[in-house]
Amino acid sequence: MKTRNTILLFLLAAGIFAFIHFYERHQPGTRDRRAAESVVLDFDRDNVDEVELINGDLKIVLRRKDNDWYLKEPVEDRVDPKVIGDLFSAAEMLSRDGVVLMPGKRDDAMMSRFKELGVARAQARLKLRGKGLEEELLLGKETPVEGKIYIRRDKDNDVLVTSAEIKRLVTMKAADYRDRRMMDFSTDAVERVAIKSAAGELVAKRDGKDWELKKPIKARGDNKTVDAFIKELAKVKIMDFGEDEEIGEIKGKLSLGIEGTNDKLVVEFGDLDASHPELVRARVSGRKGMCLIPSLVLQILIIAPGDLRDRKLARIQEEIIDRIALEPSSGSKHAFVRSGDGWKTPEGGDVDVAKVQALLAVLENTEVTRFVADVDTDLAKYGLDQPVVRVILSSYASETTAESARGERPFCTVTLGATDAGEIYARVEEEPFIVAVPAGLEKELTW
């Protein structure tokens, strides 16, 4: 009998121990409990679909669409990602720095105490709505401690003390929540830039990885320069917003168009603002009302086609070169064909590979000293009708296509003509321009 009782007591103790062990494992620790108790609003920002900010008679409504936030009241516009992020961070980091306990039911005495602390029907309120979420936070008066305010969750009686930063964000103006970026998409996604002015239109368009000028001339664009130009435009910020659409006289003024993969921006610039002459009045596509933009943007947009042109003599794609031909006006002609990673003569003879690479490097790195003519109608004037040397770069097509036959296809033919005052005239036959390059280049292109 005693043995049976001992066994029963042992099993009972083991069961109690197991229950305590598994129960405690699934309970928050002291640190976790204290952390949870110190949090004022327990929410996931990814589940918030709408934010309402109330400051007296002013109501601001922000709504999520996909992964972006938009103002819906009192004006429709994009929301500044940083500002909405700061608001969420401030709401998440609200801490219970003090508590004014309000036990019992809400009665006149409790409501009177709420009013005294500014949290009865507070002037400033924050509402969060979303998936399974409905929170309202009432932001009251400042406490005797600087930088602290009284707050209360609408569903709770207890009044908390926390940082005043949340109230600063909630009581900002609607304009403070508007996205100040003139251009809101990545510069890497830009495919076309157009500037219109009284002088005409300048258009640059991306072709694969390279930029090409389309107006007022068709020419190679300098990739680094065009990219840098676009990045400067992307830095431009809207300084303020106006309620009216009036920007002044736009006839003959500047306008800017930027097209991306899935985005488009059009900005029309009007008059300088009478009250702030350092700002220009502008109309930005997709934005309500008039925008005030630093007038320095006008200086950025005063750019000539030559400022964006590629100053390299030729755009070399070494990986597609299969054959090089050197044709001087006097002396022997030479040809080299690709053979694996090296080069051979057409007859299979050996070639100094380093010398071929040096020749290609010269072509690739030579810069134009000036653009002489945009059309090549008078080649004799520049000695280009009978060039001192021609360099022909070709690729090889192994199949016939609708555009061309099987075989060798020249894609870059550089010719050098007459020398004049330390320069030599040059052209790429596949392009209509005549340029000048440093004299002496003809010596570097001989074998």
Largest sheet: 9 strands, antiparallel
Number of helices: 11
Strand order in the largest sheet: 4-3-2-1-6-7-8-9-5
Quick check: average pLDDT?
Answer: 88
Kindly list the characteristics that best describe this protein.
Dna Ligase, domain 1; elongated; 447 residues; 26 strands; 4 domains; nine-stranded antiparallel β-sheet; alpha+beta; 23% helix
Explain the overall architecture.
The chain is α+β, with helices and mostly antiparallel strands and 447 residues long. The protein has four domains: 2-36; 39-177, no CATH class; 187-308, Dna Ligase, domain 1 (2-Layer Sandwich); 318-444, no CATH class. The protein has eleven helices and 26 strands. The protein has helices spanning 2-25, 30-38, 81-92, 108-117, 165-170, 174-177, 223-234, 296-301, 305-308, 353-365, 441-444, and strands at 48-55, 58-65, 68-73, 77-78, 98-100, 124-130, 133-142, 148-153, 159-163, 190-197, 200-207, 210-215, 219-220, 240-242, 255-260, 264-272, 279-284, 290-294, 323-328, 334-339, 342-344, 370-373, 389-397, 407-420, 423-428, 434-438. A nine-stranded antiparallel sheet has the order 4-3-2-1-6-7-8-9-5. Strand 8 (148-153) and strand 9 (159-163) form a beta hairpin. The chain is elongated, with a radius of gyration of 36 Å. It starts with a helix and ends with a helix. Residues 30-36 have low confidence and may be disordered.
Compact description:
The protein has 447 residues and is an alpha+beta fold. The protein has 11 helices and 26 strands.
